[in-house]
Amino acid sequence: MIPSLRLVGTLALALAVACQGGAKPPASKGRPPPLVTVQKVRQLDIAIERRGLADLRPVEQVDVAAKSLGYVETILVDRGDHVTKGQLLALVRPSDLPDQLAAARAAVEQSRSAAALARSNQDRAEQQAGLGLIARQQLEQSQLNRQTAEGSLAVTGAQLAALGVKLGETRLLAPIDGIVSLRHVDPGALVGPPGGGAVLTLVRVDRLRALVSLSEPAALGVVTGLTARA
Prior knowledge:
Blueprint: H1 2-22, E1 54-58, E2 61-65, E3 70-75, E4 82-83, E5 88-94, H2 97-130, H3 136-169, E6 171-173, E7 178-183, E8 190-191, E9 198-203, E10 208-212, H4 216-219
Antiparallel strand pairs: 1-10, 2-9, 3-5, 3-8, 4-7, 5-6, 7-9
Helix pairs in contact: 2-3
């Protein structure tokens, strides 16, 4: 009995294995294909906005200075005033220019009298030379004296004109349209070369230059525009 039971069990086990080996496994469900979107590559400039502090400076700035040594007599404008080109801003009283002008005028008068006398002497010498009363050498000397006197008159006249220009420079005029940004001195101060003659500083505010400090990532790009807010 026992061998028969073992045989039956062995046959049953073999039959179960054979049945399992012949069965097909269930078919697995397939994965759907991925969705892909195709786009053409384009090059674009990306605007990056950064906020920071900007230092606004004028494009044009001018120092109004005295060209001649003298004392500031009066200043007609103050800091913050709007001025126009050619406007009188200040007056400088020269230290020794009036004395120089007086001496130059006296020298011109003296040279003018000397030139008139030399011309008269030459005319007289020409008349006497025509009558044979003087030698040719005396006539040539009178002509030379006239040329020298007229040359001296031209020199003194030029010196007087130069002093007149200096006198005009004591009137400080605005070279540009703008605003008085600085007032360097007060009336009574000594200005002019060699110590320096700056009296006022003018700036134009219709056009300004903005200086912005950028960090390294922002500095790699290109600044296309600035927006200033008061």
